[in-house]
């Protein structure tokens, strides 16, 4: 019992350290700010390092408890098993409510420590100090949840000698992606706490100009990139594991991850307008607050048990905590915006809707409408149940009908926005810059028709995909012609690579949703069947058994490649699940599952398979990889278009605080549209810090 109790005590000590350092850090730093105690402010990083130390201590204790199957802890009784393979045993920490909160605490502590290190010489600046106070408050909240209702180190009932648990949900120990998908999502979710903290600090200090945006640009971009990768990995996991052959089902928990991604994407675009033209201050603050608030709301939906989902955890006692914290964030944030309303008047004005800022504003409106549609469809069943005590379901048709025109509008904006100049555009300039992108759109439409594509919406999607890809490629070609490899670096040029990845994903989704073919095939051993241009031959049916599960595997040759769809029965739970097998290609995937829920007998000479031919699926993953590359390139500074003494590039707190209209750009994007400004201010533009 000594080793068992030691794990729990060590974990509790770590959580207590996180809680104590968070609360003391918030109070002492806030007091030092109010009293002007510079010595106290310089002690702020110490609390961040203590929070990180406590989170690491608790995580090590949990991983140790999982490794030795410390069944004195209730959480290990729930998710531990000696039959669970090592990698899934590590991932078991975030396979249930308590461990997932601990993962959140760990990631948040990492961001807090990274922020303390990044601004280690800047804590005399009130903006940085108040941002750290906000981070300490957030850390304190999650520490309270982890130490209280979602305590992963709570003692469990006494178990008999030789006891072994069931292990994680079988769906969470069937694919290696479970090791990466949740942590990447959390890096995205939690990462938005840093720009949120600076936004709140800017409102508290009244320094609501553009300076805080520059401090958080890369933090927001990193969080957005991680959230993007996490969502794509979730789609890949769903495709490879769940057996239904899709990547997105508008599941409520999927929607909970999409909501902050939508508002975060709008923010990343919208912030360019504020940095360049001094516009949309309230809008940007609202988008950032909405993004962080939606991560908390999404956590409530996932962890409270109020919704039914393959991703959701069972009902716990954390729903009131998260709902209350969500309400507190919204009320405090809106109160601060109202308090600073006089300082939030934007100095810039829009000269013409046919301009880059006009396109970004339209982009923001569309993303916000999309987020509202997804939010309404997700919470509507909860509202109906609360008001009328009856259950209702908002299915995929609702989301599909409304998302298709929104997707089309976004593709159109992706084609037009990159070639638009700031302030206003002439018809002649647009004709010149859109000539080749338009021909790319026509070419894409011709190729789609030649490949046999039909249907109005899919053809529009292919044409606009080509149009948008042509615009992005044009920008990249012109930038690299001027600057060489440096033309790929910077927010604008890296953003064009992200756009290409998004276009690949959009086209792949259009193709796979519109042109998937599915059939049932009865395969007989030794006989070859042809369907939809592919050949299938049953080799044998075998049983594969280990300590964890029994699997009946049908070995099938698909175009000469051996594949093995199976039905797997997990012994500890007595649960059988279908395990699909996928033959991937550049033009289409062949997706195999054993039809029905009854597994064939080992040695059977006939097997009925459900087979799907899904075009262009692999381009979803290629597009996601390209988005990741583009995000990294966008994080690095491009060609400078400002003087280093300008307020926008000065340290926080050293700039001009006057609300002045930015001067006209010295040289907007060159006449060929190559440079796009990388989001930096022009030399003569004045930014408010």
Q: What would your notes on this structure say?
A:
With 689 residues, the chain is α+β, with helices and mostly antiparallel strands. Among the domains are: 1-168; 517-617, no CATH class. Helices cover 57% and strands 10% of the residues. It contains 19 helices and ten strands. Strands 2, 3, 4, 5, 6 and 7 form a six-stranded antiparallel β-sheet that branches. Strands 1-10-9-8 form a four-stranded antiparallel β-sheet. A hairpin with a 4-residue loop joins strand 6 (566-570) and strand 7 (575-579). Helix 8 runs antiparallel to helix 10. It is flat and about 80 Å long. Residues 310-315 and 640-689 have low confidence and may be disordered.
Q: What is the structure about, briefly put?
A:
With 689 residues, this protein is α+β, with helices and mostly antiparallel strands. The protein is 57% helix and 10% strand. The protein contains 19 helices and 10 strands.
Q: Structural class of the secondary structure composition? A: alpha+beta
Rg measurement, Å:
27 Å
Number of helices: 19
Low-confidence stretches: 310-315, 640-689
């Amino acid at each position: 019992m000594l080793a068992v109790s030691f794990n729990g005590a060590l974990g509790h000590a770590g959580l207590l350290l996180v809680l104590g350092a968070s609360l003391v850090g918030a109070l002492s730093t806030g007091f030092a700010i109010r009293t002007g105690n510079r010595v106290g402010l310089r002690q702020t990083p110490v609390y961040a390092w203590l929070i990180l130390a406590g989170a690491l201590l608790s995580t090590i204790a949990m991983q140790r408890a999982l490794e030795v199957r410390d069944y004195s802890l209730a959480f290990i009784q729930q998710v531990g098993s000696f039959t669970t393979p090592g990698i899934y045993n590590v991932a078991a920490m975030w396979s249930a409510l308590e461990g997932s909160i601990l993962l959140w605490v760990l990631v948040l502590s990492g961001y807090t420590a990274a922020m303390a290190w990044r601004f280690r010489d800047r804590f005399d600046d009130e903006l940085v100090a108040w941002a750290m106070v906000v981070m300490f408050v957030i850390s304190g909240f999650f520490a309270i949840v982890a130490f209280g209702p979602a305590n992963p180190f709570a003692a469990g009932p006494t178990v008999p000698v030789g006891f072994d648990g069931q292990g994680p949900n079988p769906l969470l120990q069937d694919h290696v992606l479970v090791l990466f998908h949740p942590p990447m999502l959390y890096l995205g979710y939690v990462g938005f706490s840093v720009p949120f903290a600076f936004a709140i600090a800017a409102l508290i200090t009244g320094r609501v100009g553009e300076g805080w945006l520059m401090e958080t640009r890369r933090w927001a971009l990193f969080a957005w990139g991680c959230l993007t990768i996490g969502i794509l990995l979730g789609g890949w996991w769903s495709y490879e594991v769940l057996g239904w052959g899709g990547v997105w089902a508008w599941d409520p928990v999927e929607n909970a991850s999409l909501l902050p991604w939508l508002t975060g994407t709008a923010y990343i675009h919208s912030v360019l307008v504020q940095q360049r033209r001094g516009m949309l201050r309230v809008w940007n603050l609202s988008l950032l607050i909405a993004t962080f608030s939606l991560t908390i709301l999404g956590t409530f939906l996932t962890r409270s048990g109020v919704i039914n989902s393959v991703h959701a955890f069972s009902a716990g006692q954390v729903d009131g905590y998260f709902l209350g914290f969500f309400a507190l964030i919204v009320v405090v944030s809106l109160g601060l915006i109202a308090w600073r309303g006089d300082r939030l008047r934007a100095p810039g004005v829009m000269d013409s809707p046919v301009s880059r800022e006009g396109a970004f504003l339209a982009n923001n409106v569309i993303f916000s409408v999309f987020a509202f549609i997804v939010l309404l469809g997700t919470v509507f069943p909860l509202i109906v149940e609360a008001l009328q005590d009856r259950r209702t379901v908002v299915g995929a048709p609702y989301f599909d009908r409304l998302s298709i025109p929104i997707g089309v509008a976004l593709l159109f904006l992706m084609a037009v926005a990159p070639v638009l100049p700031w302030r206003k555009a002439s018809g002649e300039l647009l004709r010149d810059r859109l000539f080749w992108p338009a021909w790319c759109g026509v070419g894409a439409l011709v190729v789609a028709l030649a490949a046999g594509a039909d249907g109005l919406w899919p053809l529009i999607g292919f044409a606009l995909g080509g149009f948008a890809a042509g615009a992005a490629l044009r920008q990249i070609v012109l930038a690299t012609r001027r600057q060489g490899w440096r033309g790929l670096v910077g927010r604008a040029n890296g953003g064009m690579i992200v756009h290409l990845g998004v276009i690949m994903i959009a086209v792949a989704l259009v193709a796979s949703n519109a042109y998937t073919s599915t059939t049932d095939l009865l395969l007989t051993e030794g006989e070859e069947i042809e369907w939809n241009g592919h050949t299938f031959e049953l080799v044998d049916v075998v049983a594969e058994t280990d300590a964890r599960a029994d699997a009946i595997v049908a070995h099938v040759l698909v175009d000469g490649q051996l594949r093995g769809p199976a039905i797997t029965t997990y012994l500890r739970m007595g649960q059988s699940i279908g395990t699909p097998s996928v033959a991937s290609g550049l033009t289409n995937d062949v997706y195999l599952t054993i039809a029905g829920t009854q597994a064939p007998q080992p040695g059977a000479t006939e097997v009925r398979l459900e087979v799907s031919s899904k075009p262009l699926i692999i381009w979803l993953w290629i597009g996601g990889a390209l988005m990741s590359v583009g995000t990294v390139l966008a994080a690095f500074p491009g060609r400078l278009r400002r003087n280093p003494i300008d307020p926008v590039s000065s340290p926080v707190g050293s700039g001009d605080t006057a609300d002045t209209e930015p001067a006209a750009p010295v040289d907007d994007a060159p006449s060929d549209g190559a440079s796009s400004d990388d989001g930096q201010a022009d030399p003569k533009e004045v930014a408010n810090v």
